[in-house]
Amino acid sequence: MKTILHLSVSLLLFSGCNQQQADKSAGNLAVQVQELKEKYRPGFGEYMIGIQLHHSKLWYAGINNNWKLADYEIGEIKESFESIKDVETDRPESKTVGIIEPAIASLTAAIVQKDEKEFRKSYDLLTAACNNCHTTNHYEFNVIITPTAPPVNNQDFTAKP
Ligand code: HEC
């Protein structure tokens, strides 16, 4: 009887100890996950470089009436801004993403309608909104324009039948 009691007390202590250990390693894991998130989180500027490339590709897709590609590029731009809102929560600029949203909506509509004239107009709106956000956030020296040459030479922007 004494032995059984002894055994159960030790088991109890042992499992309590295990619980503590488990709590500790879960805590460590949470800290590690947080550290990794910080380390591998794209910075605001990195999102912007991606957006810059999509902005340029979008132009060549639209003026070539390559609506499938244009739809893809505007989708990528939209997603990047959604990620900025989700991920860059400690940057006050993330609260101003709304500046770009009407232009994205207007471009999306032009692309759905396969309307090049509307596309060109909405593209100007988009570029103006990029610059508007930069000015609002004191990055007015990052001036965005309609591209004058394709951003890459290893991609064909023309529409395929
Ligand atoms: C929510 C506001 C906002 C909008 C909208 C916005 N930007 Fe930016 N952009 C910024 C901020 C803030 C920076 C500076 C980021 C940093 O480096 O910390 C920046 C920087 C940039 C840079 C410089 C990146 C570098 O390191 O060289 C480019 C290029 C750029 N943006 C392109 C664009 C384009 C193209 C659009 C429109 C499709 C756009 N941005 C829309 C806020 C915005």
Provide a descriptive summary of the structure in words.
It is a single chain. With 161 residues, this protein is mostly helical. The chain has two domains: 1-40; 44-136, Four Helix Bundle (Hemerythrin (Met), subunit A) (Up-down Bundle). The protein has five helices and no strands. It has helices spanning 2-40, 44-63, 67-87, 101-112, 116-136. α4 runs antiparallel to α5. The N and C termini lie far apart (86 Å). The relative contact order is 0.11. Bound molecules: heme C.
Please describe the structure with a list of short key phrases separated by commas or semicolons.
161 residues; mainly alpha; Four Helix Bundle (Hemerythrin (Met), subunit A); 2 domains; 5 helices; 0% strand; binds heme C
List the SSEs and their pairings:
Blueprint: H1 2-40, H2 44-63, H3 67-87, H4 101-112, H5 116-136
Helix pairs in contact: 2-3, 2-5, 3-4, 4-5
The chain binds heme C.
In brief:
The protein is mainly α. 70% of the residues lie in helices and 0% in strands.
Structural class assignment = mainly alpha
Gross morphology is elongated
Give the CATH architecture of the largest domain. Up-down Bundle
The portion of residues assigned to helices is over 70%
The end-to-end span amounts to 86 Å
Number of strands: 0
Please give the domain count: 2
CATH class of the largest domain: Mainly Alpha
How many helical elements? 5
Radius of gyration: 26 Å
Q: pLDDT under 50 segments (min length 5)?
A: none
How much of the sequence lies in strands comes to under 5%
Name the bound molecules: heme C
Main β-sheet: number of strands, strand sense, barrel status?
A: none
Q: Any idea of the CATH topology of the largest domain?
A: Four Helix Bundle (Hemerythrin (Met), subunit A)
Helix-strand topology string? HHHHH
Query: Can you say what the CATH homologous superfamily of the largest domain is?
Result: Oxygen-evolving enhancer protein 3 (PsbQ), four-helix up-down bundle
